[in-house]
Amino acid sequence: MEGEATLTPIEYNNILNVQRTILELLTGGHNEKEVLASLCQMAEKLLPNSVASIMILDSNTGLTRVISAPSLPQTAHDAFTGL
Question: Among 29, 37, 58, 74, which one has the highest count of C-beta atoms within 10 angstroms of its own C-beta?
């Protein structure tokens, strides 16, 4: 297919490792906060010089709330909350 990206063996293994880690976290009794923080940290490792966050949109207010952003200082959490 035109424009289809092909993964290198290293990229493929990285994705498999992330999937394995997620399953281990979910089945290992870790709490939601730990799982989400780990997801952010894994995403940051896959994309050098990146910072990951997980935010949700409140359907009642239309504003965001930071759920996890372990690499961001509290001031950034505050800045992203309520967008």
Answer: 37
20-75 pLDDT tens trace:
988 898 888 888 888 899 999 988 988 889 999 999 998 999 998 999 999 999 99
Q: Which helix (H) or strand (E) holds 19?
A: helix 9-27
Question: Which pTM does this prediction carry?
Answer: 0.73
Coil, strand or helix at 15: helix
Chain centre to alpha carbon of residue 77: 15
How deeply is 27 buried, as exposed, middle or buried, from its count of CB atoms within 10 A (0-12, 13-18, 19+)?
exposed
DSSP single-letter state for residue 47: S
